[in-house]
Design brief:
- Helix content is 79%, strand content 0%.
- The protein is mainly alpha-helical.
- The protein folds into two domains: 80 residues; 41 residues.
- α3 crosses α4.
- The chain starts with 7 loop residues before the first helix and ends with a helix.
């Protein structure tokens, strides 16, 4: 006898046969009800599992898209020079951005990866 576990019906048939073997010693009136309840609970458990896995996979796809967008944003802002409008104000802007970068680096800590520091700078803007 071959067991077809690739199809839903094959799995149900396999489980029914195994449960029948286990329930032979139980009274016929209780055995049937017990088997039906077990099958209903198994189907519910499998359905819940599949639903949860679908939600997790959807969240994974969403998070990966967000990460890719952040990586693209970091790549595009890496090569851009700081905007300079003229003499003294540019020097003030440079000193303020250096101060801000220093404070952000302190907040993140010395061991924070470079990409986290850049992301913090982007979020501050």
């Amino acid at each position: 006898m071959s067991i077809d576990l690739d199809s839903t019906e094959g799995r149900k048939q396999y489980l029914s046969e195994k449960l029948d073997d286990l329930l032979e010693g139980i009274n016929d009136s209780y055995g049937t009800l017990l088997m039906e309840e077990l099958l209903a609970r198994l189907e519910l458990t499998v359905k819940d599992f599949n639903d949860e896995m679908k939600v997790l996979c959807d969240q994974l796809v969403t998070k990966e898209k967000e990460r890719q967008q952040l990586m693209e944003m970091l790549k595009t802002t890496d090569g851009l020079p700081a905007p300079a409008s003229g003499g003294a104000p540019a020097a003030q802007d440079a000193s303020q951005s250096a101060e801000t970068a220093f404070v952000e680096t302190e907040e993140l800590g010395e061991d924070a990866p470079e990409w986290e520091k850049k992301l913090a700078k982007l979020e501050k803007k």
